[in-house]
Design goal:
Arc Repressor Mutant, subunit A, 7 helices, 2 domains, Chorismate lyase, two-stranded antiparallel ribbon
């Protein structure tokens, strides 16, 4: 199954954006629809995602423009700002069917998913707990045997695209011990979906951030 049409347009737009200087205007939705032979609704969805991800910005009725490189969201799966590279401790690893996660990865409920849960930390500073879900059929046995590569989410992002959603919530009780916080502490949970360059979902991540240790950057 090929990539959705809007993702094809999004990837082509991204290639063009990278060649243009900051604050350059892009074509209007009508012009883009003609250029790509697509509906305006399809083009709008592609542009909307690039705006949310910080590659473009809108200026009222004046149009849509290329964002300055220093305002683009950091290309990480956690969206966090860290002065040092964090380490991680894996606390859970298994392969099984997870029906409630399957829709995020665009797979059938009876397909196998590799689930890893890890705690990210710098020394004794507990930064976050991450639930990482991989489409098992897209992960090789060599990758599974090479955990360092498998857990390098930035490596997967560089080979594809990432979409993130920031969700205010209360810390689930089962992660309170790992972060040494009280159950129900207000936190920001970051949902990340990493896709291949062809638009196929590969990894779904839920990052539960320690609000006292892990700053979140949201720039537009």
């Amino acid at each position: 199954m090929g990539a959705p049409r809007y993702l094809e347009i999004k990837n082509r737009l991204l290639e063009e954006i990278e060649k243009q200087p900051p604050n350059s205007p892009i074509l209007s939705e009508r012009e883009l629809a003609i250029q790509y032979g697509a509906s305006r609704m399809t083009v709008r969805r592609a542009v909307d995602e690039l705006v949310v991800e910080g590659f473009l910005y809108r200026n009222g009725n004046k149009g849509t423009f290329v964002a300055a490189r220093n305002t683009i969201k950091k290309n990480t799966a956690t969206g966090s700002i860290l002065a040092e590279e964090p380490e991680s401790t894996m606390i859970y690893f298994n392969i099984k069917k997870i029906p409630e996660i399957a829709p995020f990865l665009d797979i059938l409920e009876d397909e196998a998913i590799l689930r890893i849960v890890r705690v990210n930390h710098i020394g004794e500073r507990l930064l976050s707990v991450e639930e990482i879900y991989y489409v098992r059929s897209l992960i090789s046995d060599d990758d599974i045997n090479d955990l360092k590569h498998l857990l390098d989410l930035n490596g997967f992002v560089k080979q594809g695209t990432i979409t993130q959603r920031f969700v205010p919530m209360l810390l689930p009780a089962h992660y309170a011990t790992q972060l040494e916080l009280a159950p129900g502490t207000p936190i920001i949970m970051v949902e990340s979906l990493i896709r291949s360059r062809s638009g196929v979902p590969v990894i779904y991540v839920k990052t539960y951030n320690n609000p006292y240790e892990n700053a979140i950057e949201i720039t537009y």
